[in-house]
Amino acid sequence: MINLSNQIMFITGASRGIGRAAALLAAKAGAAVAINYRQAKSDAESLVAEIVKSGGKAAAFQADVGNYAEVEKMVAAVLQQFGQIDVLVNNAGIWTYGAIDTMSEEVWDETMAANLKSIYNCCRLVVPHMKARRSGKIINIASTAGQRGEAFHSHYAATKGAIISFTKSLAPELAPHNILVNCVAPGWVATDMSNAAITEEGENITNLIPLRRAGKGEEIAGAILFLASDLASYITGEILNVNGGNVLVG
Ligand code: NAP
């Protein structure tokens, strides 16, 4: 039922993990996908090749999304190549360890830039285009950490909590322009970001999840695709939890 033909989905941090799964699913639903990456050029290019091989449209765009000037160039390049952006998925992010008494200023600033300023940068530069077309969907990737906090990751949790309040602020601000703004909040998902912790902690993690397992990138991609689709045409300012029930009990 979900058909994104003639839609352009622009996904940040799509070379790996959740972003990659979202790109593949969106392409399967008929969208052309603009794939942002920061470092993993060959991963991004092989994802583009995979989508094109199965009959879809995709292109890769390098930028550090925490850097305004780089995002400005990237958005211009995406618009030049695809002509429009229908769906912006603010997915890029980093998750590093940080006890507050030893966390360096660099680690704090790096997390703020990659996880939060990135969302300002992309929205600031894509919203004028969406407003001009009176149409758009913005999907921000938050985390259970943004809802309940996360010890030893306070910098990460602070960005994710901010993403939730940013989403709730932009939703009514942009509703008159027919732009819907929502969040997907994943719990533990088996990707490069969290695989080491999931392997190391094992049942310490899975026992806290009512569904007793970590999620897969594809399961987060499903929620992103739903919010990008016409099935979600009356949803804005929502935080869609995809965490196996974890946020209720963990
Ligand atoms: P991942 O596998 O580590 O992939 C992260 C992606 O973000 C990569 O494509 C990476 O690009 C990109 N990226 C990081 N910093 C960037 C920057 N400054 N500019 C551009 N791209 C950048 O992570 P993931 O698990 O898929 O996470 C995706 C999102 O889900 C993140 O926002 C994360 O916080 C959120 N999330 C994940 C989990 C989880 O358990 N995995 C749980 C809750 C929320 P390169 O490959 O080029 O470095």
In short:
It contains ten helices and seven strands.
Structural commentary:
With 250 residues, the protein is α/β, with parallel strands linked by helices. The chain has one domain (8-242): Rossmann fold (3-Layer(aba) Sandwich). Helices cover 48% and strands 15% of the residues. The protein has helices at residues 17-28, 41-53, 68-82, 105-133, 145-148, 154-174, 195-201, 203-206, 217-228, 246-249; strands at 8-11, 32-37, 57-62, 87-90, 136-141, 179-186, 239-242. Strands 3-2-1-4-5-6-7 form a seven-stranded parallel β-sheet, with helices on both faces. The protein is globular. It binds NADP nicotinamide-adenine-dinucleotide phosphate.
The helix/strand order is EHEHEHEHEHHEHHHEH
Kindly give the count of domains: 1
Strand order of the largest sheet: 3-2-1-4-5-6-7
Largest sheet: 7 strands, parallel
Strand-pairing-aware structural class: alpha/beta
Helix proportion of residues, in percent? 40-55%
Rg calc: 17 Å
Distance separating the two termini? 34 Å
Q: What is the assigned CATH homologous superfamily?
A: NAD(P)-binding Rossmann-like Domain
Overall mean pLDDT: 97
Q: Roughly what fraction of the amino acids lie in strands?
A: 15-25%
Task: Indicate the low-confidence ranges by residue numbers.
Answer: none
- The CATH architecture can be given as 3-Layer(aba) Sandwich
Tell me which ligands are bound.
NADP nicotinamide-adenine-dinucleotide phosphate
CATH class: Alpha Beta
In DSSP terms (H or I, runs of 4 or more residues), the helix count works out at 10
Number of E strands: 7
Question: What is the CATH topology?
Answer: Rossmann fold
Shape: globular
